[in-house]
Amino acid sequence: MSSREYPDRPWVGIGCLAFRGEDVLLVRRSRPPRQGEWSVPGGAQHLGEPAEEAARRELREETGVEVGPLVLAACVDALQHNEAGAVRFHYTIIDYAGRWLSGEPVPGDDATEARFFAPHELPGLGLWDEAIRVIAEARRRLPEG
Questions:
Q1: What is the pLDDT of residues 119-140, one digit of tens each?
Q2: pLDDT at 4
Q3: 100/66 Cα distance (integer angstroms)
């Protein structure tokens, strides 16, 4: 089986953005890659698990939040190389988005914090450029709630 660090193939990651009004739910990662950074809730898809089920599971495990119908927001390649140029991490991330249904954010699984952020708070979080792009795309694709 391929390791997540220095893998022999990309890993499929599934993210799930939850929106409550204009606010978006983010988590602070407790493990590499992006340890300590704010990010879209998500993680690895399990063998035999449909992508949308993985999105809901990861959101629930990392935040305790449930969402309604999902839309496909974006697909992102997350690559991290070491100093010698070898691929340390490679995730192909499929991000979904949905409107908040229930639950208050509580960090779990591989998150140390989980909370909703208003749009004006996002620039101060030091988010990865792709996370900013995915949030904007999810807002565009998600029907008004």
A1: 999 999 999 999 999 999 999 9
A2: 86
A3: 6
pLDDT at 56 over 70: yes
Query: Is the CA virtual torsion 100, 103, 52, 27 positive or negative?
Result: positive
Smallest Cα–Cα separation from 15: which of 126, 143, 127?
127
Greatest alpha-carbon span in the chain = 47
Q: Is the pTM of this model over 0.85?
A: yes
Please state which CATH number belongs to domain 11-141.
Answer: 3.90.79.10
**CA geometry: angle at 11 spanning 106 and 68, to 5°?**
40
Query: 80-112 burial string, b = 16+ CB within 10 Å, else e?
Result: eeeeeeeebbbbbbbbbbbbbeeeebebebbbe
Q: Where residue 32 falls among pLDDT bands split at 50, 70, 90?
A: confident
The DSSP call for residue 110 is T
Identity at 124, one-letter amino acid code: G
Q: How many CB atoms lie within 10 A of CB 72?
A: 15
